[in-house]
Amino acid sequence: MVQGMQLSTRLTQSMVLAPQLQQSLALLQAPMLELKALVEQELQQNPVLEEIEGTDVELPDKPVEDLGDTSDATAAPDPAERTDEVPSEVDFDKPEAAPADDFQEEFDKLVQLDQEWRDNFAQSNSPIRQSSEDEEKRQFMFDSLTAGTSFAQVLMDQARESDLTDDQRAVAELIIGNIDDYGYLKATVDEIAAANNLPAEKIAGVLKVIQTFDPPGVGAADLRQCLMLQLERADKEDSLEYRIIRDFMEALGKRRIPEIARGTGREVDEVQESLAKIARLEPRPGRAFLPDTEQYVAPEVFVQKVGDDFTVTTNNDNVPHLRISNVYKDLMSQGENNVEVKNYIREKIRAGKFLIKSLHQRQQTIANIGREIVKRQRDFMEKGVAHLKPMTMAQVAEVVGVHETTVSRAVSAKYMETPQGIFEMKFFFTAGLQTTAGGEGVSNARVKDMIADIFKAENPGKPLSDQEVVKMLGDKGITIARRTVAKYRDELNILPSNLRKVY
Q1: How far is the first Cα of the chain from the last one, in angstroms, to the nearest whole number?
Q2: Considering the entire predicted model, what is its pTM?
């Protein structure tokens, strides 16, 4: 067999999204805070665009144009080359070396179109500058920001303030470097000693000092030692809690209360009282020093009750307001500019117009979807989560007149402020379980709420099994599998029946 190289041709089809279509999808899917970053990037790349701040925008009352199911697209046409995708009546697809009369006619239409956008935005020709009071508030906000202190830094500060020698502080730094964010030592004394060529006794001595630092329990090798360190700090080494943790940790994890009672020679009630005290100990000492994971969101849709009806508005205040700069329109009107300059400016203006239209289309799409959500979830708006109805994206897409994937992108990472609180827009799209009474569906969220109420009302001495909950829901006309009940119970952080039993 002869081996070698040869050339061959092959015809294939692949999905290609035009750059401007990709931009429209990115704007639609981006939440409010990311949207500003995307627009800022476009402002830096397109010199003809400028942002106007402090302007109230009213969206034009136009039907939403669906972006379609791009998952099945093949060789999608470039929206920049389609006259129906450009938010104007201007024909930008003329030859580059257009005659002067045709170019002047095109430019006149562009100026007229820009004036229409100005009237719609109610804009002035000059940007609105921030007042001195606004600048002062902004500076105060930046001055008020503080940098958090890491958990390792807290431990090192205590090491410097302790009675450790300089040599021991260097060892303490090695040990602290092996303590994780929850306060546990992730390497053994022998491993640290071998890795740094130090005596194990020296490592163990410094570790004993670190285990006296705050928070109590820091530097422990496992949960058992962590809880024991906390009780030792509280002078409770002779307590029943300390003995249970020291000698019956496995039985404690499985809540084998009778076994612990027999092993300690105490009554079941005493053991349960000690377990309640153990539950108040901190299993993760470093948790208080974890980075702040709170997320701040800007609602995209606001729902307010006015009389007997609900009004839906979009958050247009935080949407960047753009326009075409007058400077470049003046350059277009100058006759001495060559064809290359005019074609460059024309292309940038066309891209800017498409971006402005995409922003309007984004807001209109989200507004229409928000109205349909409120229409279908009126009971939720009035009465709460227990009255949430099953709803799919396909149902909303059919009414709004867009593709299901467009709805998915439009609600991704977006939030809605309702009379019941702030919810992610995807929260309202839930599958349903069929009921035997009338055949009406009930949402998963409502079923989960019902399960939580059932477990809350159970007898602690005889906790309900998942199968018993299935039967109770069946008596209410809801058909559900036992594994689904177990799944919802786990999501509600409710233990299995054998671990919930109180003796």
Answers
A1: 80
A2: 0.59
